[in-house]
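Troubleshooting: if your tokenizer reports a length mismatch, compare against these two reference records.
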Amino acid sequence: MSDDVDAIIIGAGVIGAALALELTRKGYRTLNVDKLPAPGYGSTSNSCAIVRASYSTWDGVAMAYEGFGYWHDWTGYLGLGDHDEELARYVNCGTLQIKNRHDDRWQRVVALYDDVGVEYEHWDLDTLRSRVPIFSTGSFYPPKRPGDEGFWDDPDDRIIGAIHTPGSGYVNDPQLATRNLATAATAEGATFRYGVEVVDVRRTDGRVAGITLANGEQIDAPIVVNVAGPHSFVVNRMAGVDDEMNIGTRALRHEVHHVPAPSSYDYEHDGHHVSDGDAGIYFRPETANHILVGSEDPDCDPRIWVEDPDAYDTSVSHDQWEAQVMRLARRIPDLPIPSQPKGLVDLYDVSDDWIPIYDRSSLDGYYMAIGTSGNQFKNAGVVGYCMAELIDAVERGHDHDADPLRIDQRYTDLTLDMGFYSRNREINPNSSFSVNG
């Protein structure tokens, strides 16, 4: 197949499909391979699909803000025209980032919003009570678990309000959004193969040569891109590039839970995505007037790293369900507590500093868009575009390691420095080392 494929993309999640669309539009003949049966069936399918700009670095805020444009212009970006395709829907509910007196992260976020140009409002307690009357304004910092001393005590302090970003929201169906991207890429000439497992990344004379599948089939290509999500570290080992990277990735088990909203409030239509670092949770509206809630990974919550991404516990943990739901109940005192836990369990692909790797590698022709799970769904369009530009530039001779590529963006007047996402960077101390689903 060497005459038929210019670039093999390992993975058909939301970022792999977006990259296929962008590379195909640049004239590359692409093939996505995925061992699952359809696009977006892996960790993408269980993404909370939250679209927000609240990051702890300029580059993180800037990329996320650029990402708003893709979702607001979803139909135009896909370019499917009259194609008979159901489209994912962007729910522009806005984000509230809770402010408290004990954690200054929100102040840093505001400074970055000002620098990048993100639209936002400060909501004081009166505004917050008026706009979201079901919320308690008590401060529960630092976050705790229900068995910890003081968890159920009446708060002796108050939060001080919230930052509202009106452009934020979530995508109603992450798997459908991925299918939209794959359909658009296919319409441009991309190809996808499902139900096939990569067992080797082959190399010849210091350059990638292609891949080998579990059935023994070899597919040749001068470019291979690792977009394998929680399996990214496994694929890097196949390619023999993991030892030369300063930043690596691991798979992290994570849970999100579904609970009904108070019957007195239509959270599905009137609610917001909320980043509540005061309580150690994030949550957003869900269908049937439910709320989806996850952990922002405070110190009190355990982190479960997974060595084999094909073998981990997929059952909801009662302890973690109780921790997340009861913290939500502290913020929403009238929250109905179900008798049975309900939620989703999946893996995040997490880098050492929780910032993705969008880069080439020491193996010529081998590229990586990894460390993305849990926080980069929102950036799929941006990442697809930037990675296509990076791959094309390097293949034309640009030395990205010595002179990191800077890329002007489509929807904003921002320029992103792709060196920020280098595999060779030092661990970024400004990272929040946490996630927002």
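Reference record two:
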Amino acid sequence: MIKKILLAILILGAISAAIGVYQWNKPHEKVEDMKGVAVTAVTLSKEYTENEQAADNKYLNKAIEVSGTVSEVNTNQDGGLMVVLDSGDPMTGVQCTMREKGASIAKGQNIKLKGKCSGNGITGVSLTDCIMAP
């Protein structure tokens, strides 16, 4: 009886280890391979301001194709490019962390970016792993 229990525990452990190895090594989905939800920076910011929970249900962890006017271009602590799109509210914006550090983006430029939505923060909606949208 004890041998059967130990065998069952051993089999479950092996299955768990196999699942863990698979999850760890499976390829991560890239934003360019995902279908993006098209939205303007003004609309995205407004939806998060009006009802954050509903906006999270609609956008969080999904690919977003956001279009708008660049209000700021900065570098973050990792040396990456951070682009802020005008949301119509001077206190908030749509913050887009670019994947490529050397992208050529200028303040005042109308642009369309594609990235993964990571939700709303103190200074506005955040998108990560952003690329230039076609």
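Descriptive notes for reference record two:
- The chain has a mean pLDDT of 88.
- Residues 75 and 81 are 5 Å apart (CA to CA).
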